[in-house]
Amino acid sequence: MSDEYVLSQQFEITGGDFGNAGKTSTSIKEILKEIGIEPSIIIRASIALYESEMNIVMYAQRGKVFLNITPEKLHFKIEDQGPGIGNIELAMKEGFSTATDKMREMGFGAGMGLPNIKRNADRFEISSIPDKGTTLDITFCLNKTGSK
Amino acid sequence: MTLKEIKELLQAEIIVGENKLDIEITFAGGSDLMSDVLAFGKPGILLLTGLSNSQSVRTANIIDAKAIIYVRGKKPDAEGIELAREKGIPLLSTKLMMYATCGLLFSHGIPGVSDLSHIKQQ
Prior knowledge:
A: alpha+beta, 5 strands, globular, B: Udp-n-acetylmuramoylalanyl-d-glutamate--2,6- Diaminopimelate Ligase, Chain: A, domain 1, five-stranded mixed sheet, 34% helix
């Protein structure tokens, strides 16, 4: 990866804060639009990010999103402090969910999140330590140099 | 079909977007689960939902939905209304149930996001 960053920014997300859930993704979508990322990539990135943000709000105590954009790549590192995922293979299966009623009331928790993040990303990596937290690395390849 | 024609068909009330009723709607999808909308929705969709919290508007914004129609007489909360105004997403509300709303739109030529080509015609 080129270390010639176009943009590098960090965002904090508070677990359990359903009132503000999704605000970070909405803000980052605006940033991506402003710097002229291709619309089809913006949608895929926004979906992946929104799902990740909701996972932090629903399951973790807190989390951080590190946004890095280079001329070649759009990359999110999403780290949370939370219960972690005991069985990643199971969590990646569509329909598998440990959501509570409160999460379902918000319209989430159908067990689609992680598979949907993977489907939208060009590259997706997940690692987790039970009782510590989960880290996602989500990468999108940019065809152009960022400006349209 | 324009949003104005859809509003009349569904006898819907406009909550946000009085000035955007001339937008053209070409397909729609209905779900109360935003997880499913994020997984199966496509840009330009008319989103039908009974989920009235602000996540419905956030989801619509994330996937570039053209508008939201709340079914079963639901109305979005204040935060959802504010976000829709900010992002320019029209919000309407109909008293019809989800099934009737989808059926009416489908019978008036608005398809869903499903690929029906593998369904055998009787």
